[in-house]
Design brief:
Length: about 725
């Protein structure tokens, strides 16, 4: 119509028409000077806005250039998951800046995540903004680009603040941005809108525990109550969830915070308790889910099928039964709409309430168990590959690890294998605990993981998994799995200093292996029996067991197993003839060199060091302990590493190198504490007490010895002589 009007003006009849128009009197001055009212469209400021003071200050600083009239600011994007308080924050900062934008404040709900509503298209948003700025609707171009240009022209001479709430995408926002020097824009979105160039981004996290409690008390009207603190954690510190439970408490005075927290304790149905009036956590999450592409929706559903502490791309690919490229793309999309948080590169964690929502999505799916089995198989085989990388090739790996379970890439080095184990340990534990009684694969996962756990000295985890595996094996009637679990639990108890318990478990394993006729594992168990009996001071029985074990090893041609038994024999000889002990350990060391077995070499050096301590030769002992620790490294087998370090402390103390001994002892205490190795902590405190006492610190020494004695008394007899020494140091009578 505008083009047609211009064409009419250019026709020959135009002068007459123009003259007629010129004869028309102008409108009254009051009408000509009238202007549309200044827009002030901000929703009311939040009635209860708690915390986020630092973030508010950062937002104001980001908007400062436009607020001061000194230049257009970068668009500010406030992003985060559903219910985290994005709109409340944007409206709060906009109200705080009202006076800095005298030409008005515009607000548009872009409906990017509004239940049951299609997101607002840019053309509709442009028409609404231009109308609110006083532009005659008949003058608004139909083309989106022309309408966006008119919006920029209209806003250019003004100082106006725009709040674009609940944006779906950068494409939806881009045409709405002003270019004037005095205008500012605040955008809220579940996505960080990374395609929006030049934006200042502020990702929003849940509230702190303290601020969550304040919000809950303010909205509910309840005073301090311990039950409210429980509610804070059950709501995941999510403002929307906190407002729901606060509204429920405010509506029903008889409903206590403890009762409501109890209802939220159960994962099943938790989202039902977070639905009140027009506030719904489930509804808000459902909108995000409904907007997902099929791969991302499948990924979210499969996350609910197998609840892991943290998700990596390879595991999600197995859950989805697809390749890792598609799984990574799906996870990226879930991050983009704030249903997942990427806590480190390639590692993803959902909020607790998103976990609940994902579990609900997975509950009705027939393929839930198949997805769980796929990820179990992958974890079990990958964990088995750790053992292959850590154990010497040959019979030892065959004895300690299960047969191939599935497909997983081998590790190129022990360091890479240990790093993967450190990263995936929480998932490995969670899967085993959850599925041990449901899946035979979970038993294989537990067995495969013992090599890694032993190497790292994770005694607590070894105990939990060992008991789970033993219970599940007995319930399923799998006697071989039962014997494996008994052997692993025996090893854990030995490393923890519970030698009597270890011996009992080992004897049960021997009985099963004899029934099954497995000579290689009988040999291994007999060697363990001899080692345990030696630790309990039952030397004749130990000799008999070790001689029987070495006969098995020679008959089976197991050179590596024979070298291990020689090591045990050396420890046994140390009680009567330390020189003979050294000879045994040197034979084990030679076998380690010939077989290229690092574990045999470092163990031999450690044992030779102890024999030299028995002979009163601390300098030679220190040399062998140093050699052992060099071979082990910081990531080496914890048991041998800790034994070598405590031996080195003794050697350094006897050499008068107190400062070096203190340093070594402190390192040992720190590492033993991180592994909850109470036995080694006790041994280190004993040595540290001797060092401190020699320097005149009698009170501190007594405290250390008291702590060491208490810890050793909780064990079952392995350290009888040391406990008697500690009682003597403390002035107590020794036990008979």
């Amino acid at each position: 119509m505008q083009k047609a009007y211009q064409e009419v003006l250019r026709t020959p009849a135009a002068p007459a028409m123009a003259a007629a128009m010129a004869a028309t009197p102008p409108p009254p001055a009051s009408q000509a000077e009238s202007r549309p009212p200044r827009p002030a469209q901000l929703p009311p400021a939040p009635a209860h806005f708690i915390g986020r003071e630092d973030l508010l200050a950062e937002l104001r600083a980001a908007l400062a250039p436009a607020a001061a009239g000194g230049g257009v600011s970068r668009p500010v994007v406030v992003s985060g998951m559903a219910g985290v308080g994005k709109s409340a924050l944007a409206v709060r900062v906009a109200h705080a800046l009202r006076d800095d934008f005298p030409d008005g404040q515009l607000y548009v709900n872009l409906r990017g995540a509004t239940p049951g509503v299609t997101p607002l298209d840019p053309g509709s948003a442009l028409r609404a903004l231009l109308r609110d700025l006083g532009v005659d609707p008949r003058q608004v171009p139909c083309e989106e680009d022309a309408a966006a240009a008119l919006l920029r022209s209209t806003l250019a001479p003004t100082r106006t603040l725009l709040v674009l709430d609940d944006a779906a995408s950068a494409a939806q926002v881009r045409p709405l941005l002003p270019a004037g020097p005095g205008c500012a824009v605040v955008v809220t979105s579940r996505s960080p809108l990374t395609a929006l160039d030049g934006a200042a981004r502020f990702p929003l996290a849940p509230l702190s525990a303290e601020d969550s409690g304040m919000l809950l008390r303010a909205v509910s009207g309840r005073g301090f109550d311990e039950g409210l603190e429980r509610l804070v954690e059950r709501c995941g510190r999510l403002p929307l969830a906190l407002r729901v439970v606060a509204a429920r408490l405010a509506a029903r005075s008889a409903l206590t915070a403890d009762v409501l927290a109890g209802l939220l304790d159960a994962q099943a149905g938790r989202l039902d308790q977070l639905d009140y009036d027009d506030l719904s956590v489930r509804g808000s999450l459902a909108v995000a889910h409904d907007g997902l592409d099929p791969d991302a929706a499948l990924a979210l559903r499969r996350l609910g099928a197998v609840d892991l502490p943290e998700y990596g791309v390879p595991a999600v690919a197995r859950l989805m039964d697809t390749d890792e490229r598609r799984a990574a793309a799906a996870l990226d999309r879930l991050v983009d709409v704030a249903l997942l948080e990427e806590v480190s590169y390639g590692r993803f964690v959902p909020h607790d309430l998103v976990r609940d929502f994902a579990r609900e999505l997975a509950e009705g799916c027939d393929d839930r168990q198949q997805a769980a089995e796929r990820v179990l198989v992958w974890y079990a085989e990958a964990t088995r590959q750790i053992g292959i990388a850590l154990l010497p090739p040959g019979q030892e790996a065959g004895l300690r690890l299960p047969a191939p379970i599935g497909e997983a890439a081998p590790f190129s080095s022990a360091e890479q294998a240990l790093a993967w184990g450190d990263l995936e340990l929480p998932n490995f534990l969670a899967l085993t605990e959850r599925y041990a009684s449901q899946s035979a694969t979970a038993l294989l996962l537990a067995r495969a993981g013992f090599t890694y756990l032993q190497r790292r000295g994770r005694l607590q985890e070894m105990a939990v998994l060992g008991e789970l595996a033993l219970d599940a094996a007995r319930k399923s009637g799998d006697t071989a799995a039962e014997a494996h679990a008994l052997t692993d639990l025996a090893g854990m108890n030995f490393l923890s200093g519970r030698t009597e318990r270890a011996l009992t478990l080992n004897e049960s394993a021997v009985a099963i292996w004899r029934t099954l006729g497995d000579d290689r594992r009988i040999q291994r168990s007999l060697g363990n029996r001899g080692m345990l009996l030696e630790g309990l001071g039952r030397y004749e029985e130990a000799t008999e067991a070790l001689e029987s074990a070495i006969a098995y090893a020679r008959r089976l041609g197991d050179a590596h197993g024979e070298a291990i038994i020689l090591s045990h024999l050396g420890n046994l000889h140390e009680h009567t003839d330390a020189r003979a002990a050294i000879a045994c350990h040197e034979r084990s060391l030679a076998a380690g060199v010939q077989l290229n077995s690092e574990i045999l070499r470092l163990t031999a050096h450690c044992n030779i060091g102890y024999a030299h301590l028995t002979l009163g030769e601390p300098a030679e002992a220190a040399r062998h302990f140093d050699e052992s620790l060099t071979l082990i490294g910081d990531d080496g087998d914890w048991h041998t590493q800790s034994q070598a370090r405590i031996g080195r402390v003794r050697a350094l103390r006897e050499l008068g190198r107190a400062e070096d001994a203190h340093r070594e002892c402190a390192l040992l205490l720190e590492r033993a504490g991180s592994r909850t190795d109470t036995q080694m902590q006790a041994l280190a405190r004993h040595q540290r007490g001797l060092l401190v006492h020699a320097e005149g610190g009698e009170d501190e020494a007594r405290e250390l010895w008291e702590s060491a004695l208490t810890a050793l008394e909780a064990l079952d007899g392995k350290h009888v002589a040391l406990m008697d020494e500690l009682r003597e140091l403390l002035g107590r009578p020794a036990t008979l």
